[in-house]
């Protein structure tokens, strides 16, 4: 979107690797529902698997299946709810959500198509710089439109489309630090 990496010539995300509980169900969803071609499968030592789906633009979404992987914990390993339905927080180092870029002119149609396939999709959110970060209606300050849905293991997914370019005026917030965190304490 205009900014240039002066350190490394990165070409996007090679792959993002998640962990699933059922590889067959994962294939059904990502290839069958979302249409992502399964392009590589790997059997791992110890009985695990690592499968790769083409998610467009030369990028892949990959899944590991481990025979002894613990179950995810909503609200810790991933958000417990979709945006607009409650607290979106997840643990440090967790994968909060995966946003897939879709064409702006097909955005609303894609939402209708997913809903027709039985996928529970959120309302459309028009993200802007207002205090709530979501506009009541589309306006020129909206920078991305999105809607959310969940994968078979509760992983939070998003279809998003940029609606404008960014400039230096879009980078105005001071970064927060670990000292500012309010980590809940365990109760006995």
Automatic annotation (TrEMBL):
CDD domains: VOC (cd06587). InterPro entries: Glyas_Bleomycin-R_OHBP_Dase, Glyas_Fos-R_dOase_dom, GlyoxalaseI/FosfomycinResist, VOC_core. Residues 12-162 form the VOC domain. This is Glyoxalase.
